[in-house]
Every structure is written in structure tokens, then in C-alpha cells.
Amino acid sequence: MLKPLGTWLVRQLVRAVVVLWLVVTAIFIGVRAIPGDPAEAIMGGPGSQASAEALDMARAEYGLDRPLVEQYLIFLGNLLRGDLGVSYSYQDPVTEIIGDVFPQTLLLAVVSLLTAWLLALVLSLISVGRGRASRWMTSLLEIIAAAVPHFWLGAVLITVFSTNLGLLPSIDNGRASGLILPALTLAIPMSGFMAQLMRDSLTQAMSSPFVLAARARGASTVQVFFAHGLRHSILPVLNMSGWSFSSLLSGAVVVEEVFARPGIGRALLQGVLSRDIPLVTGIAVLCAVCYIVVMALAEATEQLINPAGVDQHPDQDSPDGPLSATVAEETIAPSVVPEPGVRRS
């Protein structure tokens, strides 16, 4: 049974507020712990040779001369109004900069996540129910895929599919073809993690009593797989969707630089190199919001797939829960009829 909508929304809202507050507080402390004077970054960096008077004016304009607690409260107040400040390096509002580049990164992350799901499902299907050699090979592929660094994989894909074969562009061309290699670079390592979880869950689900009960009722292997096994095997992967999406956003920093794609990854790298505190802060807050939203969507999807509760063992899930297990036991266990005159113990 689905949890009451009001209770779920309140819980998600409280969790979002707490997580976001912790994140923005950590960001505020972290960026101010970076060595150096932010006023120098505002004036163009140490090489700008700005005078002491100019540095004082920059500190006064951006509130850097105020006490740290007052700066923190002003920072929180600006966030509540949706004001992320003005970028030091671009001299444009941070919200405008993020609005220009975030759709590109979001598209890349979503396509990469769907591709990783597809690759993980294929690897799981190859290994489940097969021989030991097949399971060993797919397990080795999963480990290798999960361990491959993005920058090396991107370079290999560019060399093979762009330089040698000439099939796909090596840099962004504004078309769908320019998205294939970056998406694969992000998806392949992620699919290694997902496939390990999905394979173990699928193996356990396919040997559970509710699957045996479904087969006893005459369901085909395909019906059992898609109606029962797959439904339970994707729940652990959904649990890690928030982490997966956040990992894809962080991986975009490397991938967008390798493939010369516009996005928040390249903007974040530029902000870090130029000590652009407002830009770095704005992108970090955006990533935190994305994590919260994805986690909420993942939990809602879990509730739709498994209304009985995601913390419940699959054998107890309804309608394929205790009743199905009982049916399986009654179907599989041989009936013992005592002979006349023999008393059963």
C-alpha cells in the first residue's frame, strides 16, 4: 500500500531542507578556507597587480570585509531569494551562467544514466542462469568497467571511433552524434556498479519461492523474468540512483573537458582555476538540489514498483509473497498419504 502522500511529501521536504542546509554550510566554510584573498580573484587574480585601495573597494562591494557570521547569514538570505551572486571571472549573474550550460549537462547525465541501465541489464541477462564460465566472464567485465577512469576511456573511444574509424565526432557538434561518445564514457563505468547489484538481486529473485510458485502456475520463463525477477532486481539499483546521478554530474567535469562540450563541468573547472567563489558555490548548490530531487524520484518509483515496502524481503511481497510461497511449497513438496493402519507421527 502506498504511503500517505502528505506524510511522504512532508518527510521529503524536511529531508531536502536539512540536506541542502548542510551542503550550503559546508560549501560556505570550504570556499572560505581556500588559501588566498578572494578580492584578488575579483580583480583578475594575483597577476593583475591591483592596488591596496582597489582590493579594499572590492572587499567592501562584495561584503568580504564583514564578520564571517554576517557573511554567512547574507549568503543564506541570498540563496533563499535565488540570488547566487555575480561570477568573478564571467562578470555575469551565476544563475544566468548555470541556466545556459546546465541543460547540456543534464541531457548528458540522463542519457548516460539510461545507457548505464541498459548495459547493466544486458550484462545481468547474460550471466543469470548460465554456467560458471559465463558468470565469471561477466563478473570480470563488470569489475573492469567499474574501474576504468573516465579520461582514459574517453581517449580510447575517441581514438577508436573517431580517429581510426571516423564514425563519430570527437568533439561536440551540436547534434545527437556528438553525444554518443561522451554518454558512453560516463555510462560504461557506472554500468559496472549497477550490473553487480542487479545480477546478485536477479539471481536471488529467480530462485525465490514466489518465482517457483509462478512457474508452478504455468508461467513461462519470460513471464517470470519480467513480471517477478526483474521487478525485484532493479530495486537495489534504484536505491543507488541518487548516488549514480551525482557521480555522473561529477564525471561530467572530466568528460566535458575531454570532448569539449559546454556544461557545468567546464564552468566548474573554470571557476575552480580562477577561484570564482560565487560560480563554484552556485554549481555545488545545484548539484545538491539535483541529488535531492533524484533521490525523491527514486523513492517514489520504488513505492510504485514495490508498494508493500522496499525494506520488505521479496518473498513477503504482495501479491507474490507468503501466499505464493505457500503455493510453491504445496506444489513442489510431494504429498504423503499414510497407508491404512499406519499412524503418522
From TrEMBL:
GO terms for cellular component: plasma membrane. It is a multi-pass membrane protein. InterPro entries: BPD_transp_1_N (IPR045621), MetI-like (IPR000515), MetI-like_sf (IPR035906). It comes from the Bacteria. Residues 102-298 form the ABC transmembrane type-1 domain. It holds the Pfam family BPD_transp_1_N. The keyword Hydrolase does not apply. SUPFAM superfamilies: MetI-like (SSF161098). The chain crosses the membrane at residues 12-34, 106-128, 140-167, 179-198, 279-298. The keyword Translocase does not apply. Keywords: Cell membrane, Membrane, Transmembrane, Transmembrane helix, Transport. GO terms for molecular function: dipeptide transmembrane transporter activity. It is found in: Cell membrane. PROSITE patterns: ABC_TM1 (PS50928). Its main location: membrane. Belongs to the binding-protein-dependent transport system permease family. This is ABC transporter permease.
